[in-house]
Amino acid sequence: MDTPIPWHRLFGIALTDLFTDRPWRVELEKELALKSQRLDILIIERRPGAARTIDPRSLADLPDGLDTLAAHNVLTYKSQHQALDAWALDELLGHYVTYRKLLSIQANQRYAAGPDPEGEQGEPPLPSDRLVPVTDFRLYAVATRLPEKLLGQLAPGVLQPTPCPGVQDLRWGGMVIRLIVLNAIAPQARNAPWELFSAQLDRIRHGLRHYHPRDQGATDLLAQLYFNYRVEMPEMAYTMEDFKHDARRVWIEHIQEFDPEERDALLARMAVEDLLRVIKPEDLLRILKPEDRLRGLDPEDLLRELKPEDRLRGLDPDFIKSWLRRNEH
């Protein structure tokens, strides 16, 4: 392929939708230095303290592996074309260190700037030799496929299982990294956002059947995923038709969320006969004016359908008598 498929950005868009209306927000390709150094994804609490006060039960529908979210969550993602290796984990640690330093500097700058518009000073400044607490951070490594080479290099006890299949905790350089392998997670409805990126067709289809976007814009993600999989797996034509069918089902379920312009654009692309096929005749007649109902009909055809008493209903009796006299009845 001449143009690389932006798997990282699509994965970030999926997470952005997942955290819509939740206490965290998602940032993509966060700039960390004067010389460009971008980490894949940040999941950040929307307001200070949100991560500490939220009811854990409200997060029960999040995909497996996200039960340990902190105020700042630094995530690296490797698609099916990339291996999660030791260097990738070292980079994740490096990004975390840089990001933590950046947050600490910004915290002191905000305090020095004075009260916020609501009159609150905010938290006191950090000592010059202190950083934002390490407990405010979690590290995540999400890989589409099992990093077999990396796992073979680990010392015993470094990798700890969790109750969720495909989710393990990995101690690396003094930090614990939550490792999530998308091809190994449980086929649960809550894992649908993960399954869309698993690159296993049965999991992709399961994910599509259970994926419920929280934001209308996420339906565009499904279209992008469909075309990307078509490019990468053209030999799987039948399955791609299933993918398209399932993706369209999601769009249909959320069409009521489209704004009027989007609905009009969709309807304008449909043939008139297709539109009329789903409209009941009585519903159509109810919205038409009487003159619109009669337009184009032959009067003789109309009269043939009417009973004699119906033809006479509403006519002036004097008019009827005059007509009868003229016609010698």
Distance between the termini: 88 Å
Strand order of the largest sheet: 1-2-3-4-7-6-5
Succession of helices and strands:
HEEHEHEHEEEHHHHHHHHHHH
Mean pLDDT: 78
Structure class: alpha/beta
Shape: elongated
The major pleated sheet works out as: 7 strands, mixed
Low-confidence stretches: 118-122
Task: Report helical residue fraction.
Answer: 40-55%
Radius of gyration: 31 Å
**Quaternary form:** single chain
Could you list some keywords that capture this structure?
seven-stranded mixed β-sheet, 43% helix, alpha/beta, elongated, 329 residues
Describe this structure in words.
With 329 residues, the chain is α/β, with parallel strands linked by helices. 43% of the residues lie in helices and 14% in strands. It is built from 15 helices and seven strands. It has helices spanning 7-18, 50-53, 86-112, 148-153, 192-195, 201-210, 219-232, 237-253, 260-268, 272-277, 281-287, 290-294, 299-305, 308-312, 317-326; strands at 24-31, 38-45, 72-78, 137-143, 159-161, 167-172, 175-181. It has a seven-stranded mixed β-sheet with strand order 1-2-3-4-7-6-5, with helices on both faces. The N and C termini lie far apart (88 Å).
